[in-house]
Every structure is written in C-alpha cells, then in structure tokens.
Amino acid sequence: MSTDYQRAREELGRRLRELRAESPDGRLTGTALALRLGWPQSKVSKLESGRQTPTRDDLRAWAEAVGQPAAFDELQARLKGFESHIRSWQRLLAAGHAPVQETWNAVVGEARTLHVWDGHVVNGLLQTADYARSLFTSHAELRRSPQDTENAVRARMKRQEWLYRPGRRLNLLMWEAALQSRVCAPDVLAAQLDRLLGVVGMDTVHLGIVALDSPLRVPAGNGFWLMDDRLVTVEDWHAELWLDDAETIALYRRAWDALAESAVYGVEAQQVIARVRRGIKA
C-alpha cells in the first residue's frame, strides 16, 4: 500500500477520533461508540488507527452516532480523495466487471495517445472476445465477484472502437511472456495471436514486442497505462492505482521509454508473434 494512501487513511482515522471525542453528548469511549453502532470494538480501533478503510455507510453511521451528522460530507470528501488514487477491486467489482469496463471506456475515450506496457496478458484493446471471456471468468472466480462475463466482454469489445477514431494512437509494448501465457484454451490463444499479427502496421497502433531474451534496462514490473500526459493507471492484485501527479507520470514515461528500447517492431515483431504461434499445440 502506498505511503500517501496510508497517510491519508491515518488522517481520516484521526478525524474520526476527534469527532468521537467532541461528541455533543459528551466524550465517547471507543467501546461506547461500538455499542451504539453495533460494531465490534476492534472495528472502531482499526478505523481510528488507519488500519481499515471505512465505507461511506460507515462514515455516515459514525457521524450520526457521535451526534455530528453534518460532518458526513467532510468525511466523504476525505474518503473520495484517497480512493481516487487506489481503487479497491473488492469495491469496484461489487456489481461485476461490466460497470468497471464502462468506466474504463469513458476514461480511454477521453485520451488521444496511450503508452501502455503489458507484461502478463494481451492488451484489452487488442483482445478477441474469447480471450477476454477467459480472463473475466478467471478474475471473477479469483475475486469472488458477480459473474457478468458476457456484459463485460461486450463492454471491452466496444472500447476497441477507439482504435478507429481519427487522431488516436496506441503505443503498446508487450512482453513475449504475455503472448505465451496460457490463460485460455490453446485454440483461443492461437486466434488471439492471429489477431495480433493482423494489427502490426495498423495506422493507429505502434506495437513493440520485448522478447524474453532481450536485455532490459529496467525490470518488467506491473503493466501500466499512460493516458496522454494526465493519468497513469497500474493494476495490482488488490487494487487499481490511478496516479495523476506530474512527477509520477514522468517516472512511468521514463520506464516506458526504457522498455521500448528493448522492443522489436514491424516485421521483427511479427516474427516473434509467429514463433510463439507455431509453438501452440491444440
């Protein structure tokens, strides 16, 4: 968890503690507040110490229980402030993958130039429906989120319309490991690689492949997206990071540029993809 995120959570916890101490009904102990709320006392302690992230319902209940319901708006604003940077998958996927994909469609739709690094799977803008279906199914099982695979696939396929809009440019780097990753059935992976072979040379796509034996200036690291020069998104197991400060954006662009030096393009990229494709046995 990032230091900035944890610091913000601790600050929110301190504010909750202040509100409890300043209750119009007199200073409440953590135990007394827990009894009012019907919560375990440990939850009150974790929220005040920044060891647990409250929900909006938690904040509303807290403000009302300490006799200061007007404080809810302030508390909610604090929560939104740091949630905008680290977006928990547990929360995002509460209604399934499709709403998340629609949000992504809107964010990507605003961008004109993307710089993307994918080290584990084929990028969503170039996925086939069957490949995307396999990924959504496995992620829903892992995260125990609602199974809305078909709606999620349709939303992801809709996003690919971005590639055919004037003035758009996808600068995509993929590690060879992403091509070889058996996250789907062999025939699905073979069709996915055929799709990649077909986009090499496409006007709006600049595709670079980093072979497994290529020297790397920097470690491969997690996949990330740079949206113009305004936003970086990074996916991890527990959450998706949305980072918009200039220093961080510049750091990720340097990482992308360093990885780009290890990539091959055009015919050479096709040769790497074709080599992997030939190795697939149904």
For the biggest β-sheet, the strand order reads: 1-7-6-5-2-3-4-8
Give the amount of beta strand, in percent.
5-15%
The helix content is 40-55%
**Number of spatially distinct domains:** 2
Count of strand segments? 8
Oligomeric status:
single chain
Question: Which CATH first-tier class of the largest domain would you pick?
Answer: Alpha Beta
The SSE order reads: HHHHHEHHEHHEHHEEEEHEH
Distance between the termini: 41 Å
Low-pLDDT stretches: none
Which structural category fits the helices and strands? alpha+beta
For the sheet with most strands, the description reads: 8 strands, mixed
Average residue pLDDT: 93
| CATH architecture heading of the largest domain | 2-Layer Sandwich
- How many helices? The count is 13
Q: CATH topology of the largest domain, anyone?
A: Endonuclease, Chain A
Backbone shape: elongated
What is the gyration radius calculated from CA atoms? Answer: 23 Å
How would you describe this structure to a colleague?
The chain is an alpha+beta fold and 282 residues long. It has 2 domains: 81 residues, 434 Repressor (Amino-terminal Domain), CATH 1.10.260.40; 187 residues, Endonuclease, Chain A. Strands 1-7-6-5-2-3-4-8 form an 8-stranded mixed β-sheet, with helices on both faces. A hairpin with a 3-residue loop joins strand 6 and strand 7. It is elongated, with a radius of gyration of 23 Å. The mean pLDDT is 93.
